[in-house]
Specification:
There is one protein chain. The protein has 397 residues and is α/β, with parallel strands linked by helices. The chain has 3 domains: 115 residues, Rossmann fold (3-Layer(aba) Sandwich), CATH 3.40.50; 85 residues, no CATH class; 175 residues, Rossmann fold. The chain contains 17 helices and 12 strands. The protein has a 6-stranded parallel sheet, sandwiched between helices. It has a 4-stranded parallel sheet with strand order 2-3-4-5, with helices on both faces. Strands 1-12 form a two-stranded parallel ribbon. Strand 7, helix 12 and strand 8 form a beta-alpha-beta unit. Helix 1 packs across helix 17, helix 6 crosses helix 7 and helix 10 crosses helix 13. The chain starts with a helix and ends with a strand.
């Protein structure tokens, strides 16, 4: 989602340095950028970090981690060593044991990155860990920062950027109630929402996909967008799907894996759901979105794309707090929200087929309200340039 903004900034004369983490590396390189990775931050003196990285990477690689081993070792090793340096050996071990990578806040590695890149302004997302660490380091050094809020606003209370780009007006109360200064908020739209254009106008492909998979026109179809690293939420979703099939035997379920999943992961889900389930991982997203009636997820960008073309979305979470999504779930009758198997199964079992005309109207309303005009990247870039006004150079990190 950063790439369109970076391309706009580059076109306006900015020198761009990118810290590209995990699965972002390949898309950044394909777009013509040369991302710095954690592996570029390792030095010959980081023997302890390397040892930690080797140890911690073994499990991830065994589980089919798609990130290059060298990068995985560097990220885990430097982040764990930073955790030890800040909390001590025993506390670091306890935090990692209970929280996993969520315990990381790699401040020292990000300080190294800033030393190498020497940015005049920071642009980042509201994702946790390295992104949050980068904002904290920028603040330490008096460097202005701009954060892009993507989908779900809860984490933003910890992202203390000087300017916060938000997708739509309805996000404001979600963030201000969590202590975010309203004066820092700038309504820009979001590139992830603009890119819904790549899944528009594919209704005929969706119809053909259903025909190919012997799904009748009046049969409701749920598309489950899997996500990694959320075992409890995934268990809630999959148990709800199982119960929904009992309540509505006509329901079919298409399962789509996340890029970080192995083929075996999606097959395991299909096996648990039985003959009503099928694999939708090998087809284009636009095709399977248009084929389905409801998108089932915890907090996936696929859910947003589904909403933007007028599909219904079933969100699942462990806590009864809709505001964690930073989304107006109550507008346009597009979403349900479940925290238990009972409510989730009921919502999914009651899904009915809708006319494409009804979905087109809903999608158009949502795209208009969410500033999906293809210009969000320009507005965000302008916000970054405003942060640079007091600087004599244009170097964005």
């Amino acid at each position: 989602m950063l790439i369109p903004v970076l391309q706009e900034l580059k076109a306006q004369g900015c020198r761009i340095s990118v810290l590209g983490l995990t699965t972002a590396i390949d898309p950044l390189q394909a777009a013509g950028f040369e991302p710095l990775g954690f592996r570029h931050l390792l030095t010959a003196e980081d023997e302890r970090a390397y040892e930690h990285g080797i140890r911690l990477a073994e499990e991830m690689q065994a589980n089919g981690n798609p990130v290059p081993l060298e990068e995985t070792i560097a990220y885990l090793g430097l982040s764990y060593t930073d955790l030890e340096e800040r909390f001590g050996t025993e506390n670091a071990e306890q935090q990692y044991r209970t929280q996993g990578r969520r315990a990381f806040l790699p401040l020292n590695p990000l300080r190294r990155a800033f030393d190498q890149m020497k940015p005049d302004v920071l642009l980042t997302t509201n994702s946790p860990r390295a992104e949050l660490a980068s904002v904290k380091v920028a603040r330490e050094r008096g460097i202005p920062s701009v954060s892009m809020v993507s989908l779900f606003g809860l984490q933003i209370a910890d992202i203390i950027a000087d300017r916060v780009c938000i997708p739509f007006e309805a996000t404001i109360p979600q963030l201000t109630t969590r202590g975010v200064d309203p004066g820092t908020l700038v309504i820009t739209g979001h590139p992830s929402f603009d890119c819904a254009a790549d899944v528009l106008n594919q209704e005929s492909a969706g119809i053909e996909w259903r025909r190919k998979h012997s799904i009748n026109n009046d049969t409701p179809l749920a598309l489950y967008a899997m996500q990694p690293g959320i075992n409890e939420q995934s268990a809630l979703i999959e148990a709800s799907l199982t119960q929904a099939l009992i309540q509505n035997p006509q329901l079919r379920i298409a399962v789509r894996k996340h890029p970080n999943h192995r083929d075996a992961d999606v097959q395991n889900v299909i096996n648990r759901l039985g003959s009503a389930a099928l694999n939708a991982s090998e087809h284009t997203l636009g095709t399977v979105l248009h084929a389905c009636d409801v998108l089932v997820t915890h907090h996936s960008t696929v859910g947003i794309k589904a909403a933007l073309i007028g599909k219904q979305v079933a969100f699942f979470n462990l806590e009864n707090d809709i505001s964690v999504y930073g989304l107006p779930l109550d507008e346009y009758d597009w979403a349900s929200f479940s925290t238990t198997v009972e409510t989730g199964a009921s919502a999914l079992a009651s899904i009915k087929r809708e006319a494409f005309s009804q979905q087109r109207v809903r999608g158009s309303q949502i795209r208009q309200a969410w500033n999906c005009d293809g210009r969000s990247h320009y507005r965000i870039a302008q916000t970054v340039l405003q942060a640079l006004e007091s600087r004599t150079t244009k170097h964005v990190a």
